[in-house]
Automatic annotation (TrEMBL):
<dbReference type="Pfam" id="PF00887">
    <property type="entry name" value="ACBP"/>
</dbReference>
<feature type="repeat" description="ANK">
    <location>
        <begin position="205"/>
        <end position="237"/>
    </location>
</feature>
<dbReference type="InterPro" id="IPR035984">
    <property type="entry name" value="Acyl-CoA-binding_sf"/>
</dbReference>
<feature type="domain" description="ACB">
    <location>
        <begin position="24"/>
        <end position="108"/>
    </location>
</feature>
<keyword id="KW-0677">Repeat</keyword>
<feature type="repeat" description="ANK">
    <location>
        <begin position="172"/>
        <end position="204"/>
    </location>
</feature>
<dbReference type="InterPro" id="IPR036770">
    <property type="entry name" value="Ankyrin_rpt-contain_sf"/>
</dbReference>
<dbReference type="Pfam" id="PF12796">
    <property type="entry name" value="Ank_2"/>
</dbReference>
<keyword id="KW-0040">ANK repeat</keyword>
<dbReference type="InterPro" id="IPR000582">
    <property type="entry name" value="Acyl-CoA-binding_protein"/>
</dbReference>
<dbReference type="InterPro" id="IPR014352">
    <property type="entry name" value="FERM/acyl-CoA-bd_prot_sf"/>
</dbReference>
<protein>
    <recommendedName>
        <fullName>Acyl-CoA-binding domain-containing protein 6</fullName>
    </recommendedName>
</protein>
<keyword id="KW-0446">Lipid-binding</keyword>
<dbReference type="InterPro" id="IPR002110">
    <property type="entry name" value="Ankyrin_rpt"/>
</dbReference>
């Protein structure tokens, strides 16, 4: 029995060593493209994909751990840092394996579709904070709650009643446009822009909705914002433009072309 187990292990090791780095790189890049067509990805798996992607491309985590109140930033940092012991080759193989497993779970997966069923795999900036929120009754909800939920009908009713709500900010200094971009509500983003919302509004860190769209990997919204006047050169409190936060090849090329 032990002899057979050793033989199996040796066979697996030989197969692993026989895989050429160029082959792994091709498989990895293909998996990155396929990941964008996944329609059902849990928050946990999104973070795993993010961490493995960063480890595959940049190696060990080389940035300071975000502050405790930066829920999404901290979660992404921890995911990336958790793979610090993996080589580039191992990280890429793990990424490919995870994407293949997720494809099985995604009944609606279609690699031939022309539009993304999920606009990238960036972690929503406010998603991590959402898990601790209590359910709020409709009578206590503000326009920001409806924006977060993607309830355009109620937003229209509130804005028709009070147009000044359009450029208001919440307690965290986030505008409705920041929230809509963060949650990936393209229809609401278009609606807010059509109503005259400032596409270059900033939060307390001087980040614009474009910073959020790039960080979350939402290419369609990135293009939507830019086509409606978003300034790609605006920098946040750390002196970084939206381009600096891009982990997406297509988004990076698009912004660099402007």
């Amino acid at each position: 029995m032990l002899f057979n187990m050793i033989n199996v292990y040796i066979f697996q090791v030989i197969n692993y060593l026989m895989v050429m780095d160029s082959d792994i790189e091709n498989l990895f890049q293909e998996a990155v493209l396929q990941s964008r067509y996944l329609s059902k990805v849990s928050q946990s798996d999104m973070l795993k994909l993010y961490g493995l992607y960063k480890q595959s491309n940049e190696g060990c985590c080389n940035i300071p751990k975000p502050a405790f109140w930066d829920f999404a930033g901290k979660a992404k940092w921890e995911s990336w840092n958790s793979y610090r012991k993996l080589s580039k080759k191992d990280a890429q193989l793990n990424y490919v394996t995870l994407v293949n497993a997720l494809k099985v779970d995604n009944e609606g997966y279609n690699e031939n579709c022309t539009t993304y069923q999920k606009e990238g795999l960036g972690v929503s900036v406010s998603t991590m904070a959402k898990t601790d929120e209590e359910e709020i009754n409709d009578e206590n909800k503000t326009i920001f709650h409806y924006c977060e939920e993607g309830n355009l009908k109620y937003m229209i009713n509130l804005l028709d009643t009070n147009p000044l709500l359009l450029n208001e900010k919440d307690k965290d200094d986030l505008s409705l446009l920041h929230w809509a971009v963060d949650r990936g509500h393209s229809e609401i983003v278009e609606f807010l822009i059509s109503r005259g919302c400032n596409v270059n509004c900033v939060d307390s860190d001087l980040q614009t909705p474009l910073h959020y769209a790039v960080t979350c990997g939402r290419q369609h919204i990135v293009e939507l914002l830019v086509s409606n006047g978003a300034d790609v050169k605006l920098k946040d409190i750390d002196g970084r433009s939206a381009l600096v936060y891009s982990d997406d090849i297509a988004i990076t090329k698009y912004l660099e072309s402007i």
